[in-house]
Amino acid sequence: MGQKTHPYGFRLGIIKTWKSKWYEDKNYATWLHEDLSLKRMITKKHAHAGIADIRIERAANKAKVVIYTSRPGIIIGKRGAGVEQLKKELQGLTKNELFVDIQEIRKAETNAKLVAENIASQLERRVAFRRAMKKAVSTAMKFGVKGIRVNAAGRLGGVAIARREWYHEGRVPLHTLRADIDYGEVTAKTKAGTVGIKCWIFKGEIVPQRRRSGAARS
Fold first, then answer.
1. CB atoms < 10 A from the CB of 105, how many?
2. How do residues 96-127 score in pLDDT, each as one tens digit?
3. Given 3.30.1540.10, 3.30.1140.32, 1.10.10.60, 3.10.20.10, which CATH number is that of 108-205?
4. What is the dihedral of CA 197, 33, 12, 102, to 10 degrees?
């Protein structure tokens, strides 16, 4: 099962929480499609800003979009002009009052989505795939992660027959629910065709605290 399910969704409610925090009965479909359109616009507009994650929180008629990025300066712009422009564009997609929050990711080398994006961008620049993957693995281990696995599938090196190659270092326990596994996947658009990059990073174990039922026994 560890190879066939999403590492994040597999751990929801155990050590991971939902990326969209809101509840709605009547307007569920509307809000869901709003979330998707907001994420699509941000990702498309700032494709080179190193966006690792986008989280949305809603309460009544207000919505808050939290953008996690390794290059906050690109989104913020000169004197915050970039954020204001982005907020105006996003406001046109929703009727709710919108707030935008930018959070910086300090260690991009330990974020699975950003590692996969880095490898994909190198493949698009025709860097040797083995070199790009090995460098990403060694750099992540230097930054203190417990384990990393990188997978690439497609016409690697521009060859006629597509294949899959992967590099692994340290531990990546996909079956262990208490294991904090960060996962990211990106598609590299090379001249030979598309190459899928997947990355798993193991950051340690989180032991969920069990809630005590009833009063403590004396």
1. 19
2. 899 999 999 999 999 999 999 999 999 999 99
3. 3.30.1140.32
4. 70
Residues with Cβ within 8 Å of 77's Cβ and at least 6 positions away in sequence, in order, are 83, 85
Burial of 15 (0-12, 13-18, 19+ CB in 10 A): middle
pLDDT of amino acid 103:
94
Closest-CA residue to 86 (of 108, 71, 102) = 102
Using the predicted structure, report yes or no on whether residue 200 has a pLDDT greater than 90. yes
Q: Which of 205, 116, 127 is nearest to 166 (CA)?
A: 116
**Model confidence at 210, in pLDDT bands (50, 70, 90)?**
low
CB burial readout 45-65, b (16+ within 10 A) else e: ebeebbbbbbbbebeeeebbb
Q: Quick one: DSSP state of residue 173?
A: -
What does the pLDDT look like over 162-171, one tens digit per residue? 999 999 999 9
What's the pTM value of the predicted model, to 2 decimals? 0.88
Residue with tokens 């709710």: 96
Q: What is the rounded distance in angstroms from the CA atom of residue 199 to the CA atom of residue 182?
A: 8
